[in-house]
Amino acid sequence: MNQFLKNLLLWFSVLLLAGWTYQNWGWVDLVLSGTPRAEELDFNRSGKGAPPPVAFSGDEQVNVDVFARVHEAVVNIAATTLTMNFWRQIVPQQGQGSGFIIDAKGYILTNNHVVENARQITVALGSGKKIEAILIGRDASTDLAVIKIPETDVPRVVTLGDSDAIRVGQKTIAIGNPFGLSQTMTTGIVSAVNRQIQEENGSTLYDLIQTDAAINPGNSGGPLLNSSGQVIGINTAIFSVSGGYQGIGFAIPVNRAKEVAAQLITKGRYARPWLGVSGLALSPELARVLGLAVQKGIMIVEVIPGSPAQLAGLRGGRREVVIGNLSIPTGGDVVLAVGQKKIVAMEELLKEISSHKIGDTLTFKVWRNNKTFAVDVVLQEKPGR
Fold first, then answer.
1. How far apart are CA 204 and CA 142, in angstroms?
2. Active-site residue 191, yes or no?
3. What's the rounded Cα separation, in Å, for the pair 171 and 228?
4. Fewest CB within 10 A of the end CB: N or C in the chain?
5. Domains of the chain
6. What is the rounded distance in angstroms from the CA atom of residue 223 to the CA atom of residue 160?
């Protein structure tokens, strides 16, 4: 190889070495300087690379304060029921839910469906301590229940607010145990009020609070709170196609819960007001077929003997009319209004009755024999549970 080629190869090698050294200088520097000590790292040096003091926004501070003030009063509830397996053997099965302490004596408010048919109820506090609880009372129609732990184990009690004062758009905070993950908090707003849903047992829940705060299985029975940390509702249900959170949750207003809880604690049951009729909502078409002069209202089909409706003189159907494949008792009174509220659906009548108390007197506007008149009805307790 001639001298020119040797020199060219030498220079090419030098250039390659220089390029490699430039690209890998950090490794060369590490070899030359050795591994640094931990305190020599920039992020560990005092005053250098240190994060600034944590500053919460106003909304974040509300979240932090509410959780700190309330979470100790929110409990996990494990309800053990008995079920039958594939081999027809009776085996225990455990469900999870939430609840919150409403009284220093150890009373805990939760959903009826959390503890329904439970043979054993175990409460887990935020500290992890587990306590056996007893069932005080439950009511399926309102999906509310009260259980109790010893007052010596009560770490904190929630403050109950006023659900009549809530407004669409205000902040909501939910604390509970979704999927068994205890002490979980989510936030959102009041999406709507006065919602109505029907439960699997056939009962209807009225005047519910709708929220977009994430509520999942296991949140049932937990508190829905406002920015002041006051309970405004009891998380009870979600609207979901998949079974998980999809942005719509429902809570029972706390004012209704106060009334129910007080009766469950003092009487062991909730005494519901009762009218004692079954009825059919009129439509213009149905009214025309039946030859009625009124087109809207509730036509009373049956009046239960001994009911408040019968005692007040309300009348049910007296003759059968066949319409298509249906046989309808007709000739009964038509309820047009209760007080100042017009009634056009059976759900509206039931809701109006449930919003009053036993012993209340309601004035019904009734149509009978082409005449309209008023009937006073004194509500009584509904028989049975």
1. 8
2. no
3. 10
4. N
5. 56-270 (2.40.10.120), 273-381 (2.30.42.10)
6. 10
Catalytic residue among 139, 143, 212, 333: 143
Cβ within 8 Å of residue 13, ≥6 positions away? none
Q: Which of 257, 225, 274 is nearest to 384 (CA)?
A: 274
Catalytic residue among 98, 113, 191, 354: 113
pLDDT (tens digit, 9 = 90+) per residue, 270-294?
988 989 999 999 989 888 888 888 9
The DSSP output letter for 50 is P
- Count Cβ atoms below 10 Å from residue 130 Cβ, excluding itself: 13
Neighbours of 59 (CB within 10 A): 11
CA angle 281/206/200 to nearest 5° reads 85
Q: Cα–Cα distance between 163 and 232 in angstroms, integer?
A: 5
Residue 113 annotated as catalytic: yes
Contacts of 279 (CB under 8 A, 6+ apart): 298, 299, 300, 301, 332, 335, 346, 349
DSSP string for residues in 145-167: EEEE--GGG-----EE--GGG--
Q: Is the CA virtual torsion 218, 219, 222, 228 positive or negative?
A: positive
As given in the structure block, the two tokens for residue 237 are 């249900």
- Dihedral of CA 161/167/171/176: which sign? positive
The pair of structure tokens assigned to 220 is 């049932």
Q: How many residues does the chain have?
A: 385
Nearest 5°: phi and psi at 9? -65, -40
The model carries a pTM of 0.77
pLDDT tens sequence across 344-367 = 999 889 889 988 889 999 999 999
Tokens of 130: 């587990």
Which residues on neighbouring strands pair with residue 274, listed in sequence order?
Answer: 380
Q: Determine whether 356 is an active site residue.
A: no
Q: Tokens at residue 377, please?
A: 């009805």
